[in-house]
Amino acid sequence: MSFGELGLCTELVTTVTEKGYASASPIQQHAIPTVLNGRDVIAIAQTGTGKTASFSLPILQLLANTQPSKPHCVKALIVAPTRELAAQVAKNVESYSEGMNIRSTAVFGGVRIEPQKFELAQGVDILIATPGRLVDLYKQGDVNFEHIEMLVLDEADRMLDLGFVEHIHFIQSLLPKQRQTLLFSATFSKEIKALAATMLNKPVTIELATAHDHIENITQILHPVDKERKHELVIHLLKSNDWSQVLVFTRTKRGADELRNELEAMGIAAESIHANRTQHARTQALDGFRDGSLKVLIGTDLAARGIDIQQLPCVINVDLPYVSEDYIHRIGRTGRASSKGLAISLYSDDETKQLRSIERLTGRQFKKTFISEFTPKPKPPAVKKDKIEENLYGNFEAFDKPSGKRKSKGRKKRR
């Protein structure tokens, strides 16, 4: 189905066509007409299915003929869980609105707040924000929610995972009761249903591609390896395969930085992205990965939903995640838009619990694929410890049992 058949204006259809989008994705086909009709929407959609366009295009059309927003006021608010996702959505909104008299901007932490305050002081039609920075700006009097007509919660399940539920409820309490609300989530858990029940009015639910449907396009491989040799195996895999780019996940920020240093020492262009990096460093790393100048990007689960690379051939999990759902989001960076993907996970014996949890979630049992030079060492036999009885009174003189009388130690009786 073409974008012209969805009820979008000629100006927007021309814009998306010029950007190379010939036809609408399934989520766009269902969501765009529903949003244009003014209905609240719950959309269960994975990153890479075109969800950003499914809410930003109709919002742009609904705001196209309205008066410019007043100073410090906002008409449409899009809330995203991470800085990377907020910046990505803002970039798309700006791209789609070329030639339209619509002001949009993004606000998030990790960068100076003063330029963001300046932008808001001019009045913004569409504001894309992370929850923490948005609340800060409101408390400082830099943003007014009284004129908001539309609210979008993007990747709502991730916001709950990151502990933003109180921020969301606080923001909700400040918004007009009469508004249109759109909630997008990768999963439809009971927590998401509970949140939707408090925020949406008679919503239309669109549930097309679940996480499990998406990973059917991804070949999943499990390589057993000793824990201390995981980085060595990553280097071996990168050198043995002709992947144009690889996204690597580690469990810790320190592990990401250590692997980056090891790869750079081997002459492999790599960078890390995690919460301890400055926003400037994170933005540079993402830009380098998107334009192809950076071959390997190493991140913690922070990066799992903020990266949108259409033709990413491979994802490597150095460590299995503690939360099994994060495995789905990690490997979901590859195999986009019906293309084939590859996800490789390195597994050590201390990760048995995480592996079983992932297998239960995905409904499959992983076959262990051994690489000969990285076959794990056999476990040493368990040592059976002798049971040692200790004197509870702190000395080592022997007592009779059970009376507790001191032994005579063979002294002669006095006559």
From TrEMBL:
Enzyme's top EC category: hydrolase
Limits of the DEAD-box RNA helicase Q domain: 1-29
Domain Helicase ATP-binding residue range list: 32-206
A GO cellular-component term linked to this record: cytosol
Position of sequence motif Q motif: 1-29
Record carries keyword Cytoplasm: yes
Superkingdom: Bacteria
Keywords, in A-Z order: ATP-binding, Cytoplasm, Helicase, Hydrolase, Nucleotide-binding
Residue ranges of coiled coil: none
Similarity field: Belongs to the DEAD box helicase family.
Biological source species: Alteromonas genovensis
Name this protein carries in UniProt: DEAD-box ATP-dependent RNA helicase RhpA
Domain Helicase C-terminal: 217-382
